[in-house]
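Hello forum,

I keep getting stuck at the same step: I have a sequence, I want structure tokens, and every attempt I make locally crashes halfway through. Rather than fight my setup again tonight, could one of you with a working pipeline run this one for me? It's a single chain of 104 residues.
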Amino acid sequence: MFDGSMADLYQRLTHSGESAVVHEAVPAGASILELGCGTGRMTRRLLELGHSVTAVDNDSGMLSHVPTEAEKVLGHIETLNLAAQYPVVLLASNLINHLSQPFV
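Reply #2:
Ran it on my machine without issues. Output:
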């Protein structure tokens, strides 16, 4: 049952192998900056594949679902100012814009 929170809705998204595609395209163990990480659907898999991940989202409710192994950053992408540099930066979001449509 959908409780009305965006985090609950994003938690329902299934993983479709995107993290494996990223993993194959970048150096082993590369540090990854994931912008708009949501609830950590990709973050979780990237961590399992041996990457360190800095997960950024502007919603603390979303970040609360991101695994503790990731560095979590609450902030807006447009004004983000991190001291670190990353060899890999992801902005691979699934946007859900129409809550009126049934979610499968």
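The mean pLDDT is 84. If your local run keeps crashing, start a new thread with the error log.
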